[in-house]
Design brief:
This protein has helices at about 15-30, 70-75, 115-130, 160-170, 190-200, 225-235, 250-255, 265-270, 275-305, 310-315, 315-360, 360-365; strands at about 35-45, 50-55, 65-70, 85-95, 100-110, 150-155, 175-180, 205-210, 240-245, 260, 370-375, 390-395, 400-405. The protein has about 400 residues and is an alpha/beta fold. The protein has three domains: about 15-110, Nucleic acid-binding proteins (OB fold (Dihydrolipoamide Acetyltransferase, E2P)), CATH 2.40.50; about 120-275, Rossmann fold (3-Layer(aba) Sandwich), CATH 3.40.50; about 360-405, no CATH class. The strands form three sheets. It has a five-stranded mixed barrel. Helix 6 (about 225-235) links the parallel strand 8 and strand 9. Helix 4 (about 160-170) packs parallel to helix 8 and helix 5 packs parallel to helix 6 (about 225-235). The longest helix has about 45 residues, at about 315-360. The termini are far apart.
Length: about 400
Amino acid sequence: MSAPETPPSSSDQPWPVRVVSQKLSAWIAKLGWVWIDGQVAQISRRPGAATVFLTLRDPSADLSLTVTTNRDVLDLGAPELREGARVVLHARPEFYAARGTLSLRADEIRQVGLGELLARLEKLKKLLAAEGLFDRARKRRPPFLPGRIGLITGRASAAERDVLSNARRRWPSVEFRTVNVAVQGPTAVPQIIDALKVLDADESIDVIILARGGGGVEDLLPFSDEALCRAVFACRTPVVSAIGHETDAPLVDYVADVRASTPTDAAKRIVPDLSEEQRLIRQARQRLDRAVVGFLDREAHRLDGLRSRPVLARPQVMLEQRSADTAALRDRGRRCLDHRLSSAEADLRHTLARLRALSPAATLDRGYAIVQRADGHVVRAAAEVDKGDQLRVRLAEGELSATVDGS
């Protein structure tokens, strides 16, 4: 016979706490048994107690769950289990109504060995490479002289000292904004991702250095985390990876814009050497001085060669020649003009003589006269006039009036 159905809750008929606890337990139990991958953040083994308490943390997020298991289960699957180890366990969720807490009850625990971890990393490496996170074409070159450098590293670590001391030795005025985080353990990845977001949002930061000293493969696992690799890929600011020693190669090295073999190498790659730059500037100035002096010498020799030419050595020769040519042309022009004027004068005299020979005035000068009627008609015969006509007589000098009184 089934249990009676609980009526819906309302303000008039609220559910008791026990009913809510029962319903929560029922809903949570529906998940059933699952396989879980995580990192052990804490182990609590109480002497004489058969139950072991674990805190299982997500390597890529600030999330954790409590796990309970039998000591025999732990000793069978992972007898050497320590904090920070990666495990795979088979568990089901349980809700403890008395305390109102949720935990996982594990019946099998397997510690992930180094070989399996490396296999997982190789698989993740191929996945990220296929998505283009390792593409060299998208990698950005850090500025020649960054105004301010962001540094993510462990607090008071050797990596921090190496980066700061070497960078300031090379360029004393370089500025840093340092964010100290956990660089190993279950809290490392979330803290590093948060630090990346903070520095990437800072407009004054020109480049970010992610630095950590050497360590074992397990110690460097946070820097091969998928979430961290994607966070580095998403940064707008160039990121330099300086993790471990030269032989270490976590996945973040492939995603970062620049890979440095050590934290000291990161300082050398990011910050130029002031003394070396000054030496290069001196060399460049010397080359420039030599180039300018050489150019001036060549041009001076060229001017000397030009000045030694006759046209420039005695420039008055050209002027004298042109002056002589001008004088000859002037004389030639004067002669031509005189000849034309003389010829024109002779022609004018001849024409004037002919004109005078044909002019009636010359005839009048010889004693002749011109007789004209009153209408201006020249009288050539006596029959052309009648008695009493008025006539005009033109002489060589002056004129007379006459009246015809007979023929």
